[in-house]
């Protein structure tokens, strides 16, 4: 039995459910944990570089681009997915438009970019280690837990989606317009 089958499908997804999922997942991982790491490691070894201006600009660009990608992905989940980003309250509809047309995990990709930007901006070894841990845990989780659940929930439609859209970063194939749907033979 999937998570979605435990709740009443006719109950609308409230703003509170979205806010709770956003606070517990993206904000916890990109704001709370890095902030705590920075507080706990004040005076700890940091990267040093003569290219601080370039690193600051690159960090700010990664952070801004990642945050925009996360916000776009959440908005699509709210508008089209009829669920939240949380695994315990997943979307009821497969979202395959917007950024999801080019990557199956643009929200996670956006979070990776936010953390990479924070690591560059803060020059913190601890934040960089957190980024690496966060990436590894999510790559494993998505491949071995989330994707099998999506296959069970959305069946052939998810299989076709996986065949045309890469898991992480856009490829040339995902940038092409979608092929027209074939009409069933009589």
What do these coordinates show?
The chain is mainly alpha-helical. It has five helices and no strands. It has helices spanning 15-40, 52-81, 106-122, 125-164, 172-175. The longest helix is centred in the C-terminal third of the chain and has 40 residues, at 125-164. Residues 1-8 have low confidence and may be disordered.
Q: What keywords describe this structure?
A:
186 residues, mainly alpha, disordered N terminus
Q: How far apart lie the N and C ends?
A: 35 Å
Helix segment tally = 5
Assign an overall shape: globular
Content of β-strand: under 5%
Q: How many DSSP-defined strands?
A: 0
Average pLDDT, rounded to a whole number, is 84
Weakly predicted, low-confidence segments:
1-8
What are the SSEs and their pairings?
Blueprint: H1 15-40, H2 52-81, H3 106-122, H4 125-164, H5 172-175
What is this entry, summarized?
With 186 residues, this protein is mainly α.
């Amino acid at each position: 039995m999937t998570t979605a089958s435990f709740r009443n499908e006719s109950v609308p997804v409230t703003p509170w459910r979205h806010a709770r999922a956003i606070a517990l997942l993206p904000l916890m991982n990109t704001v709370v944990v890095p902030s705590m790491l920075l507080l706990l490691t004040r005076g700890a070894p940091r990267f040093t570089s003569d290219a601080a201006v370039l690193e600051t600009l690159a960090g700010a660009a990664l952070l801004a681009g990642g945050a925009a990608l996360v916000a776009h992905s959440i908005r699509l989940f709210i508008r089209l997915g009829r669920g939240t980003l949380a695994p315990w309250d997943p979307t009821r509809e497969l979202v395959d438009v917007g950024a999801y047309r080019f990557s199956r995990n643009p929200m996670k990709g956006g979070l990776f970019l936010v953390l990479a930007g924070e690591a560059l901006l803060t020059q913190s070894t601890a934040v960089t280690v957190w980024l690496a841990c966060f990436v590894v845990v999510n790559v494993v989780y998505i491949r071995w837990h989330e994707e099998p659940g999506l296959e069970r929930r959305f069946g052939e439609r998810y299989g076709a989606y996986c065949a045309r859209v890469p898991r992480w970063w856009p490829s040339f194939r995902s940038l092409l317009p979608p092929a027209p749907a074939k009409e069933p033979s009589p």
